[in-house]
Amino acid sequence: MNRFPRCDATAAWAALRGHFEAHGREFDLREAFARDPSRFERFGVEAPEVFVDLSKNLVDAATLHFLADLARECGVEALRDAMFAGAAINNTEGRAVLHTALRTPPGKAPLSAEVHGVLDAMLGFAEAVRVRAAGGERPLRHIVNIGIGGSDLGPQMAVAALAQYADPQLAFHFVSNVDGHDIASVLRQTTPAETLFIVASKTFTTQETIANAETAKAWFLAGGGGPIEDHFVAATSNVDAAARFGISRTFGFWDWVGGRYSLWSAIGLPIAIAIGADPFRALLAGAHAMDEHFASAPVEKNLPMLLGLVDVWYRNFHGFTSRSVAPYHHGLKRLPAFLQQLEMESNGKRVDRDGHALTYGTSPVVWGEPGTNGQHAYFQMLHQGTDTIPVEFILVRESDASAGGGTDVRDALARQQRMLLANGLAQAQALMLGRSAAEALAEHPAAVAGSSIDAATLAAHRTFPGNRPSTTVLLDRLTPRSLGALIALCEHRVFTSGAIWGIDSFDQWGVELGKELGARLLPLLEAGANATAAEAVDPSTAGLLRKLRR
Ligand code: F6P
Q1: What does pTM read for this prediction?
Q2: Ligand 1 atom 4: residue of nearest CA
């Protein structure tokens, strides 16, 4: 793996630098479309379940050519093959990275027997829970997932995305924060007898999750909820710790499943309970279809690779530090939060795989809100702010929204879907085309009545620079299969940029220091108002501790 040079030492990197100076810095999308009206056909990419329009990006054929060379020189394909084969590519933890094996049909990936054994057991349990929800004297009504980070964001995002497929008799809650307000607000909505708690933690040591699980157990026992084993299950790779907690039913997974890549494992139990076994298998199948595309398509037609390469182009050549995600489907409202962890925890690194400091930027800030909400919050900055922030629009052609109530309601909802799509398209268009000062002046040739500024000054405020790039990701419908493909696409895209940057995308040492210091500060907070700090802390923290202990 190390026979490949670091990206900044490759010929392609130098070629890209020259290409950027000659054509990239001043690249203008409007001129590019005028020169080549077939950009949409040229830069549209098909992959399983997904079509992506890259044509509104600051790239031309030469850019993609040099980027593909960069991928080859950096050994992205070799690293990808090593990942699929189960090599220990997470080198700082000495672990394989095999979340792809979790969604591969039996017998076709490493560790298949273990994977499918747990999958079958988990799906059997999920179906049994759905039966318990359907009837009996004391039916289950609430599923409470207690987990954080990858043990929360993936299942939470997917359950929301697939709400149309979910069992309507069950309410799903996701408790993550160590702040007791989080779990307290959920416990107030249910009773012990009608609740199933899923304690989801790969390590079963995460402070927030264990604290919430202890609170849930105390509440459950105080409420006389019945046998713990009927109401608490765990998804974890630390079966012993779960047993010490008092949980006898555990669905395991392995150290080669990273937390942020774990929704395909036992961590996906809430999803399986929500949608049932067959749709869960469809989710896996969609992801597997994307895996096969990633594993076999040539770089120039490989969608995850192309997205990851454009990310590198923006981050390292244009110098953009952020990317905004705008899913135009309300079910995908938690996708930006999920992607934030996926990308920033994976690629927010400052040294290469050999521990040498990097001389180039890595993970952008990834953030966003569902459209159209974001339009009325921060799109102002995207259109007219001083920074260029590439935007990723996710559009879903067909809506599943239904509310009963007959034809009028159906027509109204259908119209809302058309409005939603028109809004997404319009934002991408406005970012690209902008509006010149002359156009702004022509539209409002007179000053605003009652305003002290003249028409030309007003036109300056109403000018949009345009040439702001965006990518449009298109799904036909949001189904378990298409969601699986979409998430796998995002995972492999992050893999690609991480491989180019030569970093370990599968560790997360950056979360450790805060955890250690938190553990040291807790006793100082608990020591009482007059206690002398047992150990030296910096003056700012000491001052804040004094105020908090008052
Ligand atoms: O925040 C660090 C982290 O380790 C994430 O990578 C992970 O998803 C999360 O904590 C939860 O970890 P666990 O599943 O072990 O409780």
Answers
A1: 0.97
A2: 259
